[in-house]
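Case study 2.
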Amino acid sequence: MLIWGAGAIGGTVGAFLQRAGHDVAFVDVVPEHVTAINENGLRISGPIDEFRVDARAYTPQQLAGRHQTILLCTKSQHTRAAAESLAPFLADDGCVVSLQNGLNELTIAEIVGRQRTVGAFVNFSADYHAPGEILFGGRGAVVIGELDGADSQRARQLVEALRDFDTDAQFTDNIFGYLWGKEAYGAMLFVSALTHEPISDALSDLHYRPVYIRAAQEIVWLAEELGITPLGFNGFEPALFLADDQAGIARSLDALVAFNKLSAKTHSGIWRDLAVRKRATEVSMYEPLLAQAAAIDMDMPLTRRWIAMIGEIENGAREQCLGNLEDLRTEFS
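Prediction:
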């Protein structure tokens, strides 16, 4: 099994699988991270567990052979390049499993074939802290499913393997329902990253809740127009946002606040990319959604606005502050 992208998600999952006795190798494009893993092992810290595993790690240029299972764990914007790089190392009867944010299974399937692509949804919290060091902040949903909803042996085997990471890992016959649910929840996380507020504080702020609600609703409204039913997880209930059930939405947001308070990771990876690592976020994963909306003449004005704001922060033209939310609240109230 290859873990392609040994950062927050891949490093955490891979370390647990390695400790449980699976045959795991890591692939990463950061030479310092690869060197640290090879020389000192991979260290997991945080409230869930503290341990170090000896592991093998490679840059793509150092890799050889063909592999049965590749867990793709890169940032969404790197999916195409990563899938093209890993394709020569994938066995003919192997599969790529996307442990990422976004609808990346569609891109992966273009490159390695739909029959060699398996869907996945993860919502646990982790951060890459330094070469060879990952913070595992809190547990969250882990779901595996075939793109066509089939109940396959390989999907079931992947679930069993991932239960060595999280005993609650599960199979689904509607993986795209989960992925679209994550897109809606992710929209709220992107909006929160326009500020320096922790996720739990952001979602509990009644003054700005209408902005967060509208951000999620534009995604679920699009899904409905496309005939897709987003599924809920960890307190997030897309159906309540679709129905504009204000009392139910409040309960859902309160549940998300409680869920996020359990995590040692107080801010999203989006916020960390902007405020700490000073690099591009995964905001490009919403471009296909905007394209689908445009194809059916559906406007998503708030989505377009917060995407533009994230871009301005990435480019240094805007600061992260509550004033950004005030602008959105004024414009879209």
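The mean pLDDT is 97.
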